[in-house]
Amino acid sequence: MNSNQPKVAFIGLGIMGHRMLTNMSAHGGFEIVTAWDPKMEAREEVARLYPNIQLTQSAAEAILDGRVEIVYIASPPASHKEYAMMAAKAGKIVYCEKPLGVDVDESAAMVSAFADMDIVNAVNFPFADAQGVNLMQEELESGAIGEVTGVDVRLHFARWPRGWQEAAPWLAQRQEGGFVREVGSHYIFLVEKLFGRTELINSSVCYPDDDVSCETQFLAQLDCCGIPISMAGGSGGVGPDIVQFNIWGTKKSYKLWDWNQMYSTVGGDWEHQLTHIPDARQDGYMRMLDNFKRQVLGKSHTMASFGDALSVQKIVESILADDA
User: Fold this and answer.
1) 119 and 141 inside one domain
2) Statement: the pTM of the whole predicted model exceeds 0.90
3) Is 106 exposed, middle or buried (0-12, 13-18, 19+ CB in 10 A)?
4) Do 155 and 217 meet the contact criterion of CB atoms below 8 Å apart?
5) How many CB atoms lie within 10 A of CB 170?
6) Which of 77, 96, 123 is the last residue of a domain?
7) Mean pLDDT in runs of 10 for the chain (324 residues)?
């Protein structure tokens, strides 16, 4: 392993692939050496922006390149197992976008195979090391929050997929997409990171009548070691999007708004926390890659494993199956 700049292959050059290209390049702790996408236009765009990256004609060519030590997978979820197993059999570290997959049995088999082969693996849940999340965890452990009486997750999207996701039409489809998988999974991961494994108590989902489009509304009630977790979300209508996570405590409550804006209250108005961070979003990206670099080098880290992502996937797919 090149400890200064481990060499990376990218599989998938869509929205998330481009975002990771930008942030991994800015981070400087990795060297992207190969990349592939099934769309020629995507490969040509990356060739124009990143001339030092070798664009390959197949996923296998990128993954099996002898220089590659890490394979980053940003293809649609149903393809994750194929590329991850190809990389694992070649002895590469695998860093995968969430969700881990859409078929629970396939993902469980992959997790078992990775354990048998002892392959280093990670899934891209940025809440694994975000300053707002770390603050909540510290306050929970110190008792500053008091007894947790409940947790809420509230999602609403005026348009799904969001405008910047138009290049990925599968996000609008029931088979692999939807906002429960794409956004809700992050907050189920967060619940399990803070409180432990969760159990789905009940859920209800509304789908269009076309048997193709993804969910438009959902409700879910979960239990996490005795803590009630409520989730609700929908799409459509005018107005700002809502992405909100609340922890309600007897001494102090926290609100994580719009992914990275942290607020707290001890009974009065919400007070903005972590205001010393000039750009919380960019700070999160760099912390995420610092965290992954520690894992790659065998140091202490908090990255989500394939096993963690499988636990989240089981909850997500159970929610989406209800009333389908």
Assistant:
1) no
2) yes
3) middle
4) no
5) 17
6) 123
7) 89 95 97 97 95 97 98 97 98 97 97 98 97 97 98 97 88 96 98 97 96 96 97 97 98 97 98 94 96 97 98 98 60
